[in-house]
Batch of 2 targets.
Target 1
Amino acid sequence: MFQDLVLSGMRPTGAMHLGHYHGALKNWLTLQNEFPCLFFAADWHALTTHYEDPSVIEQTVWDMFVDWLAVGIDPTKATLFIQSRVPQHAELTVLLSFFAPLAWLERVPTYKDLVERHAEQGRDILTYGFLGYPLMQAADILIYRANRVPVGEDQVSHIELTREIARRFNHLFGREKGFEEKAEAAVKKMGPKKAKLYRALRAKFQEQGDQAALGQAQELVNDVQNLSLGDKERLYGYIEGGGRMILVEPEALLTETPKLLGLDGQKMSKSSGNAIMLRESPEDVAHKIRTMQTDPARVRRTDPGNPEKCPVWNLHLVYSDANTKEWVMQGCTTAGIGCLECKQPVIDAINAELRPIREHAAQYEEDPTLVRNIIQDGCEKASDLATDTMRDVREAMGLNYG
Ligand code: TRP
Ligand code: SF4
């Protein structure tokens, strides 16, 4: 515990496209080589908005995993699982709901926005469950004591809520009887050298608010081998005062990659019809790009254009090297090149990017049980981790009676 752990989830509401690849999956690929990672299909989160049409979830969940595997998410490095197959997430959501202030949920900025947006699409999500969406997300994260959560900008307020919930939990339930004595006893168990260093760092943090000292003390606790989980929680909490630190406040890892925009220059999404899917055929990719809108000023081949007003340019920004971009700039503004000519390097680059993904996907498409087994395995691993946290949570909330 208190080890670095990355966790992220996606709602299985549609097949994966290039926007997911550049906006999230590429980042996951880097992370899986740096940290233990948990990646999951948030099927309950999908149900909060799609409860009237749940078949979408079944249709997309397996495709989603095939896409993850096809881009190179490696089940020997990362644990892949399905939220609803680890029902402890639901138990923690309920337990958190008892002390999660209603006002915290109502003021999450995505809430009113999404209610409106879904209403426009004929979905009524003025439900108890949807109000609890970010709380369930908090449970997803806290149940693994994950400290790093890669998400997009739109999810930052959910991570902030998660931090507040963790803090409130520790404040309410980390205060056991005799905490000070138990914490002091745990300090002694560290051995004289480490205990001395711990005390010094704790004092430095408490007296001078020294954040670096806080970090060093946490690391020190992290590295101690012979302590029980409960004692580690005490030592963690004791640095800052309070009580045991049972749940861990996570940090958002913002994905800073320039977002890949859709064929119309808007955010890429399947429902907007502006997406290129990860397993799109080379012919379809070529067709979609050839029929893309360009700068409306270029009515005829001889009319000069401005790449800044053209969605094809967005793709060049992601896919083309400096020379090609220069060639586009020059050629477009002087009517030196035609739009079809301009699009060809993008078609080639996207198809080159997708080729290995398609090939890799084929092996999983041919063998669906392979995917089922990988996920089954991941669900079991996730469940084991969740069980450890839930034992502490139940105990702290007084549910451990005989
Ligand atoms: N709400 C996230 C989204 O829409 C999906 C999600 C659910 C998630 N639980 C999570 C992401 C936990 C990160 C961590 O994208
Ligand atoms: Fe767009 Fe390229 Fe045509 Fe210019 S030449 S309008 S950048 S497609």
Target 2
Amino acid sequence: MTESILLIVKPDGMIKGLAGHVLRRFEETDLKLVGARLAKVTDQLAATHYHHLRDKPFFEELIHFITGRLYAGQGSVLAFAYTGEDAVRKARAIAGATNPEEADYRSIRGSFGRVTTKGVFENVVHVSSDAIEGEREIKLWFHPEEITVDLFPAISAGGQSAWADPGGPKTRTGPWPQEKV
Ligand code: UDP
Ligand code: MG
């Protein structure tokens, strides 16, 4: 089944100089790269992206991690959209298990991730958990015109484009919040 996923090189991956390595690992698959974006993650984007974890005790630390505040603000991330056969399984195999200590040591997380003393998994990359999350996350992180193929239906009016079905309240529907990259 054709699926689409969001890959993010998280702030720890960027600071450790792993963006090229991550991209190379994905280039070795048959997945098609259809979107790429450098972003400074706002609190709003982080909270929307990780809405399913909002009640977890590590949520605040997780937001500090993904926004780059754990790294004195050096927190730009690279976000990529990929599509292809069995994309979730292939991408998550490259990433490895969520906890770097449990991840296959040949995976990205197993090779380069760590667990902080506060219990956050600094695990280098984000990969969508399933195809539904993949669609929601790509629509959250990308405008339709930033995706190079017709992945999901979009509408345009007055020179602006938007996803036709943005995926409910957990997905951004308006313009991007102002971001400083
Ligand atoms: N996370 C964490 N501690 C946990 C579970 C998750 O620090 O006990 C962080 C970790 O960075 C993870 C992210 O929260 O990648 C999202 O968690 P999820 O369960 O969605 O795992 P993933 O889909 O990223 O493997
Ligand atoms: Mg997840």
